[in-house]
Amino acid sequence: MGCCNRRCGLIAGAVFGAVVAILGGVLIPLGDIVIEGTVEKESVIENGTTAHDNWVATGAKVYRQFWFFDVQNPQEVVQNGATPVVVEKGPYTYRTRYLAKENITYNPNNTVSFLLPYGAIFEPSMSVGSDQDKVTSLNLAVAGAYSLVPKPLHVVIEKLIKDTNSSLFQNRTVHEMLWGYTDPILKGELGLFAPYNGTYDGYYNVFNGKDDISKVGIIDRWRGERSLQFWGNKYCDMINGTDASSFPPFVDKKKPLYFFSSDICRSVSASFQESLVLKGIEVYRYTLLSSTLASPVVNLDNACFCRDPKTTKNCTMAGVLDISSCQDGKPIYISLPHFLHGSESLLQAVNGLSPSLEQHFTYFDVEPITGFTLRFAKRIQVNMMYGPSKVITVLKKVKDYTIFPVVWLNETAELDEETADRFKKELFSRVQMLEMIQMALLGSGVIIFVLCLISYCCVRRSEGKIA
Questions:
Q1: What's the whole-model pTM score?
Q2: Domain extents for the chain?
Q3: 432 CB contacts (<8 Å, ≥6 apart)?
């Protein structure tokens, strides 16, 4: 009778262990469903969600660091046609994107509209000097007039240059070059980013994800249009993806991430590079491919981005993007800093450039469950073009069209420790607790089942020997 009770008890224990193990196994997919549901709910852009609070106003501090290319031999270039020699000068750092989105409108078609205000505050502690420091750089008015004014009218430019005692290069403060100064040739305000403070980017119209979480943050319209009006081509004028501040949740590293950048007037994609740990949080690092600014000879998709065969060596030049069509005709060329991934001819036209993959590439560190970008570094170089002229004296010695580097910037941000701790507490602590419960139930159930089964076999064997 005692042996029977023992066997029954062991069988019951084995059954209990199996049930516990099955419960732990069932909780795994069930737990995943709970986690996905929570993330999807909190990722929707509407009042009361975690995504909404971070979306309205950027929590992390965003900085723009500027490095100017200070020209060392301006007279030799103008008088003798020498190759310009430049020395990098910077960083000069400004805090940007500190203003909350404005004119936020929640639309009935599950989209949200808003304006993104621009603002810049100088950060002396993060700079090499005052933004009143002077740099010798390209004369923006001369370069701009050279491209915009037809050659038969270059005589007019020549007269304006002489009347104002101007040249191909000028000596200006950092603040003037970035945010504007009164130009003697144009008799108006001129600057690389002027006007900036008090202006806006947008209107943006983005999906809120309420009806389809895979579309959250994806841009529906920019400035009221579903496509750009800059490139005259359906492919190049597409507006793809988000603004890169976040992406739809549950990121698949096998697939590229798409985003639109108004700074470069086009959409681009980024590909997974590696997994990293940022303040205790696993993130996926995405980077731009070298093919992004490759010449159409290498990347056929870039053919519609080639605007002027004359200045891009019949569209065989790599590494630059002519965005004059979205800059009111100003001869602005965008590249990676120091012409990273650019054609050799770009580096040969100016001495002093040293492209570095480590220092000059663009990346986004994305938390894969939520799709939030927790750290990024967007690096862009602003260039202008000038070329030879038989009429304009300061350009008579110039031998070929030159895409000249004026400044490069690094826009960067990273979540702080407090935000990281809150992020881990609100999301990952729940996930980890659920995983621990799952593993504890599964593990203890299996152990109980195996021990009871072994004990049962031992009891049966001993009973057989007694018999």
A1: 0.86
A2: 2-40+439-466, 60-98+120-197+227-414
A3: none
